[in-house]
TrEMBL record:
EC number: 2.1.1.-
Membrane topology: Single-pass membrane protein; Single-pass type II membrane protein
Name of this chain's protein: Methyltransferase
Family: Belongs to the methyltransferase superfamily.
GO molecular function, one term: methyltransferase activity
GO terms, biological process: methylation
UniProt xrefs under InterPro entries: Put_SAM_MeTrfase (IPR004159), SAM-dependent_MTases_sf (IPR029063)
Alphabetical keyword list: Glycoprotein, Methyltransferase, Signal-anchor, Transferase, Transmembrane
Location(s) in or outside the cell: Endomembrane system; Membrane
One GO term describing the cellular component: trans-Golgi network
Key word Transferase present: yes
Transmembrane found in the keyword field: yes
Organism of derivation: Trifolium subterraneum
Amino acid sequence: MDGILLKELDRLLRPNGYFVYSAPPAYRKDKDFPVIWDKLTNLTTAMCWRLIARKIQTAIWIKDNNQPSCLLQNAEQKLIDVCDVDDESKSSWNIPLKNCIQVRNSNAGSQKLPSSHERLSVFSERLNKIGINRDEFTSDSIFWQDQIRHYWRLMNVNKTEIRNVMDMNAFYGGFAVALNDFPVWVMNVVPASMKNTLSGIYDRGLIGTFHDWCEPFSSYPRTYDLLHANYLFSHYKNKGEGCVLEDIMLEMDRLVRPLGFIIIRDEEQVMSRINELAGKFLWDVDSQLLENKEKKMETVLICRKKFWAIL
C-alpha cells in the first residue's frame, strides 16, 4: 500500500477539510485489518492530517491549516515525498495520479470560509489567475439571475417539477448560483478543453467536474430533468468524426429523462442545424429570442424530450 489514493484525496481536500473513513480497519482486530490501520494512520500523520474522532467503524481526520510547514519538515525526514510546484494552467483532464504530496502556499485557503450562501457571490482569486476579472464574474451572475426567470416562464413548469439539472458548459457557475433558491441539484460541467474554471466553481461551494463531450458522460443511474448548453456545440464543431453535433445531441438525449428539458444557446448556424435535427430525436422545440450578455437578441431553443415507447 503506497497510499497513492490518499495522496490524491489530500490534493482534493482544502485546508480544514474533513476526511471520513468507514471500513473494517477502523474497528476490526482480526485478519490484516490492524496492519492496514497502522499503515493508514502512519500515512495520514505524515501528510499532517489530524485524527479527531474514532467511534465504532468510522474515523474522521482534519487536514490542518498549518500543513505546509508540517509537510516540509516531514519531507526532510523522508516521511513523505513532495511534488514539484504545480502549474494551475496545465491540463487537468486524464492526468495520472501523482505518488507525492502537493505543498500549497501557506496563505492558500487559510482564511475562514464564509457561510455557504455567501460563498456563492465571493470572487475567487483562482479565477483572477486565469484571466477572469471581478466585473466579468459579477455581470455573469446578474445575467443568469435574469435568464433563469425567462427560462422558467418559457418552460411553463412549477419550480418543483425540475430536480436534477446539468449545466454542460458551466464557466464559473453563474447558472447554478441563479438556481440557488430552487429545489434543484446542479451538476456543473467544465469542458476539459476550455479554461480551467472548476476551481472557481468549487470555491463558490458548488459541485462540478471536468468532461470531454466527445466521450460519454458517466451518469448511471441518474438522469436529468434539465440540460443547459450555452455555446457548447460551437466549441466542438471542428473536433471531427465521433464528436459531431449529432453525437452530442444523442448523448444529451440519453442523459435527459422523458419529458425533460434541454435549453440551448449558440451560434445561429449551429442553432439552425439543431432545429432541423430535433424532430428526428423526438424533441419538441420552441424557438425564442432573449438578450445575451451584450444586450443583443439571440435565439434560444427550449427543447422537450417526448415521452415515447417502442411497442
